Structures are given as structure tokens and as C-alpha cells.
Amino acid sequence: MRTRDLSYWLFLAPVLIALSLVVVVPLGLGVYYSFTDWNGIEVGSFVGFENYINVFQDEEFMAALWFTVKFSIVSIILINFFGLSLALIVTSKIKSSKLLRTIFFMPNLIGGLILGFIWQFIFMKVFDGIGTHFGIENLQGWLSTTETGFWGLVILMSWQMAGYIMVIYIAYLESVPTELIEAAEIDGASPFQRLVYIIFPLVAPAFTVSMFLTLSNTFKLYDQNLSLTGGGPYKSTQMVSMEIFKTAFVESELSYAQAKAVIFFLIVAVISLTQVYINKKREVEM
């Protein structure tokens, strides 16, 4: 028994060490530095909650946080809607389902920066060309306003993540007993009734996983924001991750940026854990 316990901890030790060095220690140091006037080289004096008080008075940070929240809400809804829709399509009885799964998942394999530049070309060149040729003013000058920049980011994120979320829904949809579907069909249940009263309750755990993944990914978005809009025009499409990065490495206010990062971490953690708790509770009720 002792040998088994020792071997267990020996096998677990590399993972615990890596987790501590990569996550726990940096997190602890970051929290500590946020209470100082650290400049990246040496730790200065202890300033208490001064950095945190300044964060809530920072209009640029609050604007970026509000923009991030709006973007995340819209993206989470659309990504899960399209992901579930694609999963229902490829799990139906069609011959090209395997090919479609590959095609729908492929956008997720493209890197964030490259993806942003691809969609920047589409929005600024292709859309502008179509708008100019056909006289559609709404397609001209995309990404030049806050509204079009917002929807450009939403479209990019939805296109990239829908296929990834589709895979999660497929795993749960294929585990639904066919006997239940056939019995409901024999009893006269319509496709919509089968979807709402049988399929949805059985794939409820998929909603929990998908919601968590989409929430965390949309909140921490940086690469696509950088390459698609760069935060413009006039920082109106700047998300929190980009704002924190600029505070740290452009304005060289590292301790202040660390305070922003800690607040951002707490916001995302609270929202994510609350979402998981509510969804898990609904699973039990179902």
C-alpha cells in the first residue's frame, strides 16, 4: 500500500510541479506585484489598493470591459447556436456527413492572427468591392466604425469556433439512444418536439461544456482583436486583453496592468463558475 502511494505521487509530481511553475507561482507573484509600484525590473514600495482604485476610475479600461462583455454575450449565443445546428446537420442521415464535419472544423485549425488578417481582407477588400460595384453602402468601409468592427469580430469568432463546439455536441448527440427517438416518432412526436423534449435534455451536459469554453475564449480574445481591428477606430473595439497588454508594454505601467489582470481574472472566474453551477443544477433537474 505504501509503495502504491509513493508511486502514485511520483507519477503525479511532474504534473504538479509544472502546474505550480506555470500557473500557481505566476498567479501569486502577479497578485503581489499588483499591490506595489513594480516597473518590471525591481519591486518598489508597497502601494496597497491604489492600483485597484485607479482601475475603476480608468475610463479606457471600463470601456474595453463593457465592449468585451457585449462581444462575449453575442458570440456565446451565436457560436452555440451554429455549433448545435451544424452538429444536428452532420448527425442526420446524409451521405456527406464525414466530409462536412471536416469542412466545418477546419476554421478552428487556423491561427488567430492569420484568421484576423484573412477576415480583414474579406471585410475591407471583398466587401468594399461588392459594395462599390452594386452600390451597397452598408458593405463599404467595414471595420471603420465601432459597430461594423464589433460585428466583424463576432463573425470571425463564430466562424472559427462553431466547428469546434460542433464536435462537442456531436459526441453527446450520438450517445442519445435511438430507441427513444424511434418510440417518440411512433407516438407521433414531431421533429421539433423530439428535439425539445428528448434530445435537448439528454445533451444538457454538452451545453455546460460548450458554454464554459465559449465564455472563456471570448473573454480572453486577443490575437483576432489585434489583427482584425487593432482596437480601432480610436480604441472603440479594444478588448480587455489588448488594453491590459498596452498598459503593460506600451505605457510601461506593469504593476497597474497587473492589477487590471487580477480584476479581469476574478470577473471571468466568477462568471465561469456561476455559469457551470447553474447549468449543472439544470442538468440534475432535467
From TrEMBL:
A GO CC annotation given for this chain: plasma membrane
Protein name: Sugar ABC transporter permease
Pfam entry (one): BPD_transp_1
Main location: membrane
GO biological process, one term: transmembrane transport
Keywords from the UniProt entry: Cell membrane, Membrane, Transmembrane, Transmembrane helix, Transport
Compartments where found: Cell membrane
Family matches, as SUPFAM superfamilies: MetI-like
InterPro entries recorded: ABC_transporter_permease, MetI-like, MetI-like_sf
Family: Belongs to the binding-protein-dependent transport system permease family.
UniProt source species: Mesobacillus zeae
Topology relative to the membrane: Multi-pass membrane protein
Positions of transmembrane segments: 7-35, 64-90, 102-122, 150-173, 194-215, 261-278
ABC transmembrane type-1 domain mapped to chain residues: 65-275
